[in-house]
Amino acid sequence: MNDDILKNTALKTTKSRLAILRIxxxxxxxxxxxxxxxxxxxxxNLSLSTTYRTLGTLAEKGILLKNMSQDGKTYYQxxxxxxxxxxxxxxxxxxxxxxxxxxxxxEENLIQKTGFVITGHSLEFSxxxxxxxxxxxx
Amino acid sequence: MNDDILKNTALKTTKSRLAILRIxxxxxxxxxxxxxxxxxxxxxNLSLSTTYRTLGTLAEKGILLKNMSQDGKTYYQxxxxxxxxxxxxxxxxxxxxxxxxxxxxxEENLIQKTGFVITGHSLEFSxxxxxxxxxxxx
DNA sequence: GTGGCTGCAAAACCTTTGCACACAA
DNA sequence: TTGTGTGCAAAGGTTTTGCAGCCAC
Lengths: 138, 138
Hints:
Two copies of one chain form a homodimer.
Chain A: H1 2-7, H2 15-26, E1 31-32, H3 33-43, H4 48-60, E2 64-68, E3 74-78, E4 85-89, E5 95-98, H5 104-114, E6 117-128, H6 130-137
Parallel strand pairs in A: 4-6
Antiparallel strand pairs in A: 1-3, 2-3, 4-5
Helix pairs in contact in A: 2-3, 3-4
Chain A binds a DNA duplex (25 and 25 nucleotides) through helix 4.
């Protein structure tokens, strides 16, 4: 399955790539290169640089979505055409997914106004989660 | 004026801080620490680390908005309560401001659903500008 | 005078890259 | 066999930090 994904893009099938796709496939949340690497080394021999290179290649091919978060790290997720945005607690990093993406209409609008070809968007909400709010009272 | 801003927040009035506020006040677009530093050194003696420290302090006090862009750099702008989002060309970095922020309604919704205190959001569109699209044809 | 502010240099942090070797096709 | 993929180590860019001295209050 992941094997097919690679074949369809003229990428060679390697243990590292399969492991990375497997890990991202299981995750319901976007992950950093380091997150992915930490899990992947348990399964196969690979280096952090390979992780970065693989993630970059897969994102270029459109297999992954790559997003810079407000925390300064880059997050990767499978591009399954039903992308999600998130609300992140600035204190404890608790993350809540947001189901609807309200931006589709706006994109149409922008295309007409600006003549840009729009290739993506990033949206992230910051806040403080209920637990941290309570902790502040202590 | 900028002097008042500082006094109101128990921050000392220094040449560096005034210069940074002056520069950001004149700019209609968000700027990076390095952008700001490059302009500020022409007016006053200051270091890049002071620039970072000042920007961080002012953002903490709510005087500036601080945003990590998809290009991996942090952008600062005056928080004048009428914030803007942007559409950025991934090839030439041309930037088009977006007038309306469509997220206010969604935020209300999120507060109720998640119990978070929402402190901000970041939104950025990526695309390719008409000029770069044309260049690709050459 | 005092505590906040600053410069400098060094470090931290995440990410990219050069090179030689390994492996999938 | 061939060229893509990889490990290692080193460098890259941006941002942070420790410490000693300086300056606004």
